[in-house]
Specification:
This is Insertion element IS150 protein InsJ-like helix-turn-helix domain-containing protein. It comes from Carnobacterium divergens DSM 20623. InterPro entries: Homeodomain-like_sf (IPR009057), InsJ-like_HTH (IPR055247). The protein is mostly helical. It folds into two domains: about 60 residues, no CATH class; about 30 residues. About 60% of the residues lie in helices and about 0% in strands. α1 packs across α3. It is elongated and about 55 Å long. The N and C termini lie far apart (about 50 Å). About 10% of the residues are buried.
Length: about 90
């Protein structure tokens, strides 16, 4: 099974609608060769939250440009704090 399938936004929406109408995630994953269990759930969450632009991503994550600045700042702040902690332990 290929890990790098491309799904157009329209197809993703059709898959999500079928999922929301009661079809199982496992059967949809098998039919459309969706490799990851979490991918379908991510798509569903983005769709239900109105983040249709995130569905344009060709790989299971939102594009950096689509992530709100506050989320990007939180991520970078956490990374910075982790690095500070690591380097302070290395020196000490």
């Amino acid at each position: 099974m290929s890990k790098h399938n491309f799904y157009p936004v329209e197809l993703k929406i059709q898959i999500i609608n079928r999922f929301l109408n009661g079809e199982s995630a496992a059967s949809l994953r098998e039919e459309f060769k969706i490799p990851s269990r979490g991918t379908l759930y991510k798509w569903k969450d983005w769709y239900l939250n109105g983040e249709i632009i995130s569905l344009e991503s060709s790989f299971g994550r939102r594009l950096e440009k689509d992530i709100p600045v506050s989320e990007q700042l939180d991520k970078v702040t956490k990374e910075l704090n982790l690095l500070k902690k690591y380097f302070s332990q290395e020196r000490g």
